[in-house]
C-alpha cells in the first residue's frame, strides 16, 4: 500500500471546502481532529506508561487541535499540562482554553522545565500552513524537542518541517524526529521523511471529497477515529 | 450502584451553563452527543446484525443529535436512512443535514414504509425538553415504534415519555419501550421506568459541573464516549 499525500495548497483548499460547501463548522472539525489525536496518544502511550502529557500549542489551528486533544486526554485519565505561549484572540481558541481551565489543567510558561516532569509530549505547534521561519518563542521549543528522549506525538506535521520537503537540511529542526505522527485528513508530502508510528485521523472526509482531492480514506476499524498506517507505507 | 438523575429543569439549566460559562459551542456538544449515540448503537447492534439504520429526527436538539449519530454510523459502515419531517431552519441543523446529503444518505418521507427495510431504529424525536402533546406528524411514528419488533435506540428519552414520570399511563406512547436508551450527560428521572440496555454518554462534563448538579460521572473506559450502566442501576 502506498498512501497518497496532500500538499500544503491542496490541504488548505480542502479545509476551506469542508467549511464552505461541505457545511462543517470549524468547531466540529477541530473537535474531531483533536479527538483523533487523543486516540492516537492513547494507543502509542497507554496510561500504564505514565499519565503526564505536555501539550505544546501553537497560535493557529494546530494549537486548537492540541487544546481539544488535551481535554479528551484528561477525560481518559491523563494529566495534561499546556504550553500555549501565543494565545489567539479568536473566540474558538479562547473557549477551548477555558474548557481546560475549568478542569484545572495547568498552563505553564516554561516549556523546558515542564519537560522535566512529563511522560509524553504532544507537538501541536505548527500544522500544514507552516512555512518559512520558526518565530519566537518557539525556536527554543524546537531545539528541546530535537534533544529530548521523551516520546513526542506531532499533529499533522513535525513542527519546523517543511510541509512538502520535510526536515530542514540544516539548523533548527533538522534533527527533530517525533516518535509518532498523526496526519489529519491525509498525510502531507513530508511523511516520506518520517520514521516512526504513523496514524491518519479525520473520519469525516466524504468519499466524493477524497476522490476530488485524489487521496484514499484509510481503512478505519470499528468506531476508531484514527487508523495506524503500517510502516513502509506513505512513501512516494 | 444507584445512579442519580437530572430533572427536566436541571437538564435545561446544565445545557445553558455548558454553552455559557463552560464555553462550549452547541456544535461541539452536539458532535460529541451524536458520537456517543453512534457508539452505543455500534455496541448493541453490531454490523453483523444488519447495516440498515433508520434514524427518526425531531425538530430540535434531539433530532440534531440523531443527524450527527447517523453521519458517524455511515463512517462505521452502516447504511443510515433519515426521517426528518420537520426540518429546522436553524443553520446548524441545516448544515448537519447537508453533511448527510453529501454522503448520499437518503431522507425519506414515509416512516412506516421505511421501517419495512431497516434493521435498527434510532429514536431522536424528542429529548429532555419534551412535555405535553406529541404533535403531527409524530403520533403515527410513536404508534409504529410501540408496535415494532425491531430494536430501537432512544436518545435521552423514549419519545412521548414524560421526562419526570415516564411513559403515559394510557394512550399514545404508553406501551413504547425501546430496547436501548442513551442518556446524555446524566439519566433523566424517566429512567426508572425503562427496561432495556442503558448507556450514558457525554464525556465532557467536568467534575465541578457534575458536583454542582449533584450527579455522578459514570466510569467510562479507554477512549469510549459511552458507558453501559448495569441493569438494576438508575433506580431511585
Strand proportion of chain A, as a percent range, falls in 15-25%
- In N-to-C order, the SSE pattern of chain A is HHEHEHEHEHEEEHE
Helix share, percent of chain A: 25-40%
Tell me which protein chains meet in the greatest interface and how many residues each side has: A-B, 33 and 33 residues
Radius of gyration of chain A: 16 Å
In the sheet with the most strands of chain A, the strands line up as: 3-2-1-4-5-6-7-8
- The stretches of 5 or more residues of chain A where confidence is low (pLDDT under 50) are none
Distance between the termini of chain A: 11 Å
Catalytic activity (chains A, B): (6R)-NADPHX = (6S)-NADPHX; (6R)-NADHX = (6S)-NADHX
Keywords (chains A, B): Cytoplasm, Isomerase, Metal-binding, Mitochondrion, NAD, NADP, Nucleotide-binding, Potassium
Family (chains A, B): Belongs to the NnrE/AIBP family.
Cofactor (chains A, B): K(+)
Protein described:
The structure is a homodimer of 236-residue chains. By secondary structure, chain A is α/β, with parallel strands linked by helices. The first copy, chain A, has one domain (8-218): Rossmann fold, CATH 3.40.50. Helices cover 33% and strands 15% of the residues of chain A. The first copy, chain A, is built from 7 helices and 8 strands, in the order ααβαβαβαβαβββαβ. Chain A has helices at residues 8-19, 26-44, 61-76, 91-101, 111-115, 138-147, 207-212, and strands at 52-57, 79-83, 107-108, 120-124, 152-155, 180-184, 197-201, 226-229. Chain A has an 8-stranded mixed β-sheet. In chain A, helix 6 links the parallel strand 4 and strand 5. The radius of gyration of chain A is 16 Å and the shape is globular. The N and C termini of chain A lie close together (11 Å). The mean pLDDT of chain A is 95. Chains A and B meet through helix 2, helix 3, helix 4 and helix 7 of A and helix 2, helix 3, helix 4 and helix 7 of B. Chains A, B: K(+) binds at residues 62, 123, 159. Chains A, B: Its EC number is 5.1.99.6.
